[in-house]
Here is the input.
Amino acid sequence: MSFSVLAALGNPGREYAHTRHNAGWMFIDALARQIGATWSDETRFPASVAKADFAGVPVHLVKPLSFMNESGAALVAFLRYRHVEVSNAVVLHDDIAFEPGQFRLSLGGSAAGHNGVASCIAHLGERFVRGRIGIGPKLHPGQDLADHVLGRMPETDLAAFQSRIPDFLQSLSVLLTRGLPAAQNLTNRKTPSP
Here is the structure.
Protein backbone atom coordinates (compact mmCIF):
# COMPACT_ATOMS: atom_id res chain seq x y z
CA MET A 1 0.00 0.00 0.00
CA SER A 2 1.42 3.36 -1.03
CA PHE A 3 0.15 6.76 0.00
CA SER A 4 0.07 9.77 -2.30
CA VAL A 5 -2.61 12.01 -0.77
CA LEU A 6 -2.56 13.53 2.72
CA ALA A 7 -5.86 15.29 3.41
CA ALA A 8 -6.81 17.23 6.51
CA LEU A 9 -10.28 18.09 7.75
CA GLY A 10 -11.21 21.53 9.02
CA ASN A 11 -13.40 24.58 8.53
CA PRO A 12 -12.42 27.58 6.39
CA GLY A 13 -12.54 31.06 7.88
CA ARG A 14 -10.56 33.02 10.45
CA GLU A 15 -13.05 32.30 13.21
CA TYR A 16 -12.20 28.59 13.03
CA ALA A 17 -8.44 28.91 12.66
CA HIS A 18 -7.40 27.81 16.15
CA THR A 19 -10.40 25.73 17.15
CA ARG A 20 -10.05 22.10 18.18
CA HIS A 21 -11.91 21.00 15.04
CA ASN A 22 -9.12 22.49 12.91
CA ALA A 23 -6.33 20.42 14.45
CA GLY A 24 -5.97 18.57 11.13
CA TRP A 25 -5.43 21.84 9.26
CA MET A 26 -2.94 23.08 11.85
CA PHE A 27 -0.95 19.90 11.43
CA ILE A 28 -0.97 19.80 7.63
CA ASP A 29 -0.02 23.50 7.52
CA ALA A 30 3.01 22.63 9.67
CA LEU A 31 3.86 19.82 7.27
CA ALA A 32 3.53 22.15 4.26
CA ARG A 33 5.90 24.64 5.89
CA GLN A 34 8.47 21.93 6.61
CA ILE A 35 8.55 20.56 3.08
CA GLY A 36 8.19 23.92 1.32
CA ALA A 37 4.79 23.21 -0.22
CA THR A 38 2.74 26.16 -1.48
CA TRP A 39 -1.06 26.10 -1.19
CA SER A 40 -3.35 27.04 -4.07
CA ASP A 41 -7.15 27.00 -4.16
CA GLU A 42 -8.88 24.70 -6.64
CA THR A 43 -12.40 25.87 -7.52
CA ARG A 44 -13.39 22.60 -9.17
CA PHE A 45 -13.19 20.56 -5.93
CA PRO A 46 -13.33 22.90 -3.82
CA ALA A 47 -10.09 22.46 -1.92
CA SER A 48 -6.78 24.05 -1.15
CA VAL A 49 -4.02 21.82 -2.53
CA ALA A 50 -0.24 21.62 -2.57
CA LYS A 51 2.25 19.20 -4.08
CA ALA A 52 5.72 18.35 -2.81
CA ASP A 53 8.00 15.52 -1.79
CA PHE A 54 7.77 14.25 1.78
CA ALA A 55 10.24 11.60 2.96
CA GLY A 56 11.24 11.17 -0.67
CA VAL A 57 7.67 10.41 -1.73
CA PRO A 58 5.66 12.71 -4.06
CA VAL A 59 2.46 13.67 -2.21
CA HIS A 60 -0.57 15.89 -2.67
CA LEU A 61 -1.69 17.82 0.40
CA VAL A 62 -5.41 18.60 0.47
CA LYS A 63 -7.62 20.79 2.66
CA PRO A 64 -11.29 20.54 1.62
CA LEU A 65 -12.85 24.02 1.72
CA SER A 66 -16.48 22.90 1.81
CA PHE A 67 -16.76 23.00 5.62
CA MET A 68 -16.38 19.98 7.83
CA ASN A 69 -19.75 18.33 7.21
CA GLU A 70 -19.18 18.17 3.42
CA SER A 71 -15.49 17.27 3.45
CA GLY A 72 -16.02 13.91 1.77
CA ALA A 73 -17.56 15.38 -1.40
CA ALA A 74 -14.59 17.66 -2.05
CA LEU A 75 -12.08 14.93 -1.22
CA VAL A 76 -13.64 12.28 -3.46
CA ALA A 77 -13.77 14.82 -6.32
CA PHE A 78 -10.04 15.44 -5.88
CA LEU A 79 -9.20 11.73 -5.77
CA ARG A 80 -11.19 11.07 -8.94
CA TYR A 81 -9.58 14.00 -10.73
CA ARG A 82 -6.10 12.73 -9.81
CA HIS A 83 -7.03 9.07 -10.39
CA VAL A 84 -6.00 8.15 -6.84
CA GLU A 85 -7.47 5.12 -5.09
CA VAL A 86 -9.13 5.70 -1.72
CA SER A 87 -6.69 3.23 -0.15
CA ASN A 88 -3.85 5.61 -1.07
CA ALA A 89 -5.31 8.48 0.98
CA VAL A 90 -4.65 9.49 4.57
CA VAL A 91 -7.25 11.68 6.30
CA LEU A 92 -6.03 13.75 9.26
CA HIS A 93 -8.64 14.88 11.76
CA ASP A 94 -9.28 15.87 15.35
CA ASP A 95 -10.38 13.17 17.79
CA ILE A 96 -11.87 13.63 21.26
CA ALA A 97 -10.88 10.08 22.23
CA PHE A 98 -7.26 11.16 22.71
CA GLU A 99 -5.61 13.87 24.75
CA PRO A 100 -3.82 16.84 23.13
CA GLY A 101 -0.36 15.70 22.11
CA GLN A 102 -1.51 12.21 21.14
CA PHE A 103 -1.67 10.91 17.58
CA ARG A 104 -2.98 7.58 16.32
CA LEU A 105 -3.07 5.91 12.92
CA SER A 106 -5.86 3.50 12.04
CA LEU A 107 -7.52 1.94 9.03
CA GLY A 108 -11.30 2.06 8.78
CA GLY A 109 -13.62 2.28 11.76
CA SER A 110 -16.71 4.31 12.54
CA ALA A 111 -17.09 8.09 12.48
CA ALA A 112 -17.69 8.10 16.26
CA GLY A 113 -19.80 11.26 16.00
CA HIS A 114 -17.31 13.19 13.86
CA ASN A 115 -19.30 14.76 11.02
CA GLY A 116 -16.28 15.29 8.79
CA VAL A 117 -15.25 11.65 9.07
CA ALA A 118 -18.88 10.60 8.51
CA SER A 119 -18.89 12.62 5.28
CA CYS A 120 -15.65 10.97 4.17
CA ILE A 121 -17.02 7.50 4.91
CA ALA A 122 -20.24 8.33 3.02
CA HIS A 123 -18.30 9.39 -0.09
CA LEU A 124 -15.17 7.23 0.12
CA GLY A 125 -16.12 4.13 2.06
CA GLU A 126 -13.91 3.03 4.94
CA ARG A 127 -10.68 2.00 3.18
CA PHE A 128 -8.69 5.13 4.02
CA VAL A 129 -6.10 5.55 6.74
CA ARG A 130 -7.00 7.97 9.49
CA GLY A 131 -4.52 10.17 11.33
CA ARG A 132 -6.37 10.90 14.55
CA ILE A 133 -5.12 14.00 16.37
CA GLY A 134 -6.06 14.22 20.03
CA ILE A 135 -7.98 17.28 21.21
CA GLY A 136 -9.27 15.86 24.49
CA PRO A 137 -12.81 15.00 25.63
CA LYS A 138 -15.62 17.40 26.41
CA LEU A 139 -14.95 19.57 29.44
CA HIS A 140 -17.99 18.13 31.23
CA PRO A 141 -20.60 15.49 30.29
CA GLY A 142 -23.40 18.02 29.71
CA GLN A 143 -21.38 20.14 27.29
CA ASP A 144 -22.59 20.23 23.71
CA LEU A 145 -20.06 18.44 21.49
CA ALA A 146 -20.20 21.21 18.85
CA ASP A 147 -19.35 23.80 21.50
CA HIS A 148 -16.33 21.76 22.53
CA VAL A 149 -14.85 21.07 19.09
CA LEU A 150 -15.57 24.60 17.82
CA GLY A 151 -13.95 26.13 20.90
CA ARG A 152 -10.43 27.48 20.73
CA MET A 153 -7.63 25.28 22.01
CA PRO A 154 -6.45 26.47 25.44
CA GLU A 155 -2.80 27.52 25.48
CA THR A 156 -1.76 24.40 27.41
CA ASP A 157 -3.46 22.09 24.88
CA LEU A 158 -2.05 24.05 21.95
CA ALA A 159 1.44 23.82 23.45
CA ALA A 160 1.07 20.05 23.94
CA PHE A 161 -0.09 19.67 20.35
CA GLN A 162 2.66 21.85 18.88
CA SER A 163 5.39 20.15 20.90
CA ARG A 164 4.47 16.80 19.34
CA ILE A 165 4.26 17.95 15.71
CA PRO A 166 7.82 16.71 14.93
CA ASP A 167 6.83 13.27 16.27
CA PHE A 168 3.62 13.31 14.23
CA LEU A 169 5.60 14.19 11.11
CA GLN A 170 8.01 11.35 11.79
CA SER A 171 5.06 8.97 12.08
CA LEU A 172 3.74 10.07 8.69
CA SER A 173 7.22 9.72 7.21
CA VAL A 174 7.33 6.12 8.41
CA LEU A 175 3.82 5.54 7.05
CA LEU A 176 4.86 6.72 3.60
CA THR A 177 8.15 4.84 3.50
CA ARG A 178 7.55 1.66 5.53
CA GLY A 179 3.78 1.23 5.69
CA LEU A 180 0.98 1.34 8.23
CA PRO A 181 2.07 -1.39 10.70
CA ALA A 182 5.50 0.20 11.18
CA ALA A 183 3.95 3.64 11.63
CA GLN A 184 1.39 2.29 14.10
CA ASN A 185 4.19 0.75 16.16
CA LEU A 186 5.61 4.24 16.45
CA THR A 187 2.38 6.13 17.18
CA ASN A 188 0.04 3.75 18.93
CA ARG A 189 2.09 3.50 22.07
CA LYS A 190 1.34 4.60 25.59
CA THR A 191 0.96 8.31 26.24
CA PRO A 192 4.35 10.06 26.20
CA SER A 193 5.62 11.60 29.38
CA PRO A 194 4.95 15.33 29.70
